Amino acid sequence: MGRVMGSLCSALAVFSVDDMKLLMVLALLGLPVSAPVEDGRIEWHQCRLNAADDEGAALDKAGAECGELQEPLDYRRPDGPKITLALSRLRASGDRIGAMVLNDGGPGGPGLSMPLRLRPAMKAAGTRYDLIGLDPRFVGRSTPIDCKLPYAAWPWAGGADRASFDRASAQVADVARRCGANAGQYLRYVNTRNTARDIDQVRVALGERKISYLGYSYGTYLGSVYLQLFPGRTDRVVLDGPIDPVPYGPRLLRTVGPANEAALRAWAGWAAARDATYHLGVTTTQVLASVDRVLRVAGRSGLQVGRYRLDDGVVPLLLFGPLADDRDAARATYAGFVRTLFDATYGPVEPGEELGGFLDSVLTPASSQLASAQIAILCGDRAVPRDPQVYWRDIQAHRRTEPHFASLTRMISPCASWPVRPQEPPTRIGNPERALIVAADGDPRAIYPYAVALRKDLPSARMITVRNARKHGIFGEYGNDCADTKVIAYLLSGQLPADQTC
């Protein structure tokens, strides 16, 4: 008890009188209070770990510093076992506004090197913040978990028939088994609420009364949970590619099938206008017929691409992944993927560098750690039906309207066989905290109704909508000067703009 009280006293050192009143009210209401861990200090040092650490070398070259923070594995037992949270800091060089924590989504995406990308994107605001890159718990350098997966392809599609569905179901169940066997001691503590608590511990360790936050994709859900659990702890918040907190969870993708079918049709029209380059068809219908042939042959006999045999479990993922960007360069890369897959319907082919790298990342253990964290976070946040028949019926009901992606977006996940149940209920978002939401109206991953729903959950927030854009992630990525300028102005002034379109 004495140790806990001592930690609480050290936490109060960074709070004002009003903050302390708030803490007491939160405690009385049974709401989460973030008392820092014992000796919650960050020892800063150079980032490069060894000669092969390119990420660390890049951070060092930019003048960043790295550090670790010991945090509770289980926040119900603050004096119990600890995990290590790894973070980087690129200090402000101008008139300092404060510290900003960054999250790149995933879930389970590493964030240590995010300051290197975001500082130039933030332009005049970039030098005004200490930019904090964070590997969330169990990701990257932060006590990473690894299920020792033989491949990292997830989600795996259910295929064209019941035999393919049953085979894929066995594969995803094996993922859950491997996670239980290789990371079981951590699975109860992998969830977004604990990551939000970690962020508040970072705030305290940095000595900040309030922090700013910029999150993409899943990072918008994490940011929303932080706003809900720790009101009054943020200054400026940007949520880009927003997720609706209500459907968020392992089955979130089942709502995005129609948007990805639309994105595929839009890309097919783009490719048809460039048939002299890609030879996939001179009309949208012809290009889609080429895609259909790829799926049909993959399900019947498989496609031999380099050393990989691609079936109807993995090909939908290859067609789905690159669709979240409608810029010409991304569409050209996607067209190259489809052209190679189409050629493989007539016999073995060798992949180009980009497709080969993508296949290596999802069909070998190379990305096992990244996939393990992503799956564990989703399964730790929300329970799902465990009966495979639920998913089979859902796929069958939507094959006609979502012919290319229903077997992927509606497929059973490892969470249906997960060895532990979520330890806390999903977080219901509804508060007056201020934030700037940035959304593309044609985003194939975080569909626009998600943004509208989050805007209602955060009535004091404001929203920038980028029209006629099929891109997941806008600020500093899409090249929309209107949106970028408004975000930067908000980061500089702290004044939210009115809801508007770009």
Largest sheet, strands/sense/barrel:
9 strands, mixed
Q: Which regions are unreliable across 5 or more consecutive residues at pLDDT < 50? A: 1-38
Q: What structural class is derived from the secondary structure elements?
A: alpha/beta
Number of strands: 11
Mean pLDDT: 92
First-residue to last-residue Cα separation: 54 Å
Count of domains: 3
Radius of gyration: 23 Å
Please work out how many helical segments DSSP would assign. Answer: 18
Report the CATH superfamily of the largest domain. Answer: Alpha/Beta hydrolase fold, catalytic domain
Hey, roughly how much beta strand do the residues contain? 5-15%
With strands numbered from the N-terminus, the spatial order across the biggest sheet is 1-2-4-3-5-6-9-10-11
Succession of helices and strands? HHHEEEHEHHEHEHHHEEHHHHHHEHEHE
Shape designation: globular
Fraction of helical residues? 40-55%
CATH 2nd-level architecture of the largest domain: 3-Layer(aba) Sandwich
CATH fold-level assignment of the largest domain: Rossmann fold
**Tell me, what is the CATH class of the largest domain?**
Alpha Beta
